[in-house]
Amino acid sequence: MSEAGQTETALGQSPCFTPGTRLHQELSIYVHLPFCIQKCVYCAFDSVVGSETDLLAWHQAILRDLELQAYHLAQRYQYVVSLFFGGGTPSLLSPRLIGEIIDLVQSLWTCSTSMEITMEANPESVTEAKLHGWRRAGVNRLSLGVQAMSDHRLFLLGRPHDSAMVQRAFQAARTEGFDNINLDLIYGSPQHTPEQWRWELDQAMALEPEHFSCYSLSIEPGTPLAEQLSLGQCALPPEDILETIHFLTVESLVIQGWERYEVSNYARPDYCCRHNLGIWRSGDYVGVGPAAHGKTTLDDWTEVRTVNHWPVQRYVHALERGEVPFQWVEVSSRREAAVDCLLMGLRLASGIPRQLYLDRAGVDLLETKGREVQMLIQEGLLHVDTASIRLSARGMDLLNSCLEWLI
C-alpha cells in the first residue's frame, strides 16, 4: 500500500494486535531523539538541530506514544529486556526527563531485573551532573559517539568535540560507576591511512571500554560530504587501503581480548549489546519517537511493522490530536521474514539457529539453497550443522557476497 493510501486507523481496531497473538515474549524498546547540536557532514539519519522547546514537546509525545503502543498493540504482555535511547543526540535530554521515560516503561511492561538501558551520548554533551542523573534514573550502559580519536579527523567529519573531550567523558563515566561503555568509531574517512588508524585504535583501546562498534564510513547521497567528494574537494581511501584498515581493526581488537561477535561489533566476555542482539536474532521491538520503526511477530511467524511519522512536528501533532503516530506497514510474507532472518542473523558470529530459519521460512535453507550452501561451505565461508547456520570469520568479511548467494 502506498503512503498516500494508508489511513490512520484507530490502534485497537486491527485484528492483528489482539492479546494472545504475541509469539515472542522478549521485547526491546528503542527511543529515538532526533535532535543534535549540529549535523555532521556524513550524516543522513533523520535528525535536526533542535531547541529546548522541541525537546519538551518530543518528551510529552514519547510518553503518549509508549502508552499507546503498550496497551493497543498488546505488547504489554511481553517481557522487556532492553531499552535504548538513540539519536540524534539523546544525551541532550535532562536526566529528569530520561528518568520519567524509564519509569513509564517499567510501569507499562514487566521488565527484566537485569534490563539493559543504553544511553547514546556525544562526548561534548557529557557532564558529571548528567552522568550522575542517568545512573540514578537507571541507565546502566553508555555508548559514546567518539567516531575518531584524531582531532584532524574529527574536524573533517564535522564532529563538535575533540579528543580531549573523549578522554574526559570516558573517565567521568568510569568515576560515576559506568562499567559497561561502548565506543563508536568510524574509519575510511578522506585521506585516512592504516598508520593513522593504528594510532587511533591504540588510543581507544587504552581506555579499556567493554565494547567497540567500528564501522567503515558510508557516503550517503545529499550529505555535505557526498557533495565535497563530487566536487573533488576530497577523496576517499582506495579499496585496498580500506581492506587493510578493516583487517587491522579485527586483528588488533581480537588480539587484545575483544570478541568479534558481529560483523562490526566487538565485546569483552558478557558485554555484547543485548538490545542489538535481540534485533539481529529476529526479536520484536517497539520504536517510539519520530521516524522510529517497530516490529511484532505473530503466531504464524508473519511480521507486522510500523514506521513513525516524520518530520518531528507531524509526529508530535498526531499524538497531541490523539491520532496514531505511525503508519502500518503490510504484514511480511514468510519469504520476506526468511530474507530478513538471513540479512540480520548472518551478521552474528553465532549465526542463525536452523530452527529459527525453518520457522520463519517454513522450509529448511538446505532445501531451497542446497547448491549455494554447499558451494559456500567448500569455499570455507559458511558452516552448517544440526543446530545453526553461520559464516566463518572470512565469510563475515565477505558478508554481502555470501548473502547474494543465499537470498
What are the defining features of this structure?
407 residues, pyruvate-formate lyase- activating enzyme, Arc Repressor Mutant, subunit A, 2 domains, three-stranded antiparallel sheet, 15 helices, 41% helix
The main pleated sheet reads as:
9 strands, mixed
Order of the strands making up the biggest sheet: 9-10-8-7-6-5-4-1-11
**Shape by Cα distribution:** globular
The name CATH uses for the topology of the largest domain is: pyruvate-formate lyase- activating enzyme
User: What class, by secondary structure content?
Assistant: alpha/beta
Strand content is: 15-25%
- Which architecture of the largest domain per CATH? Alpha-Beta Horseshoe
Query: Based on DSSP secondary structure assignment, what is the total number of beta strands?
Result: 17
Low-confidence blocks of residues: 1-23
Number of helices: 15
Overall radius of gyration: 22 Å
Report the end-to-end length measured between terminal Cα atoms: 24 Å
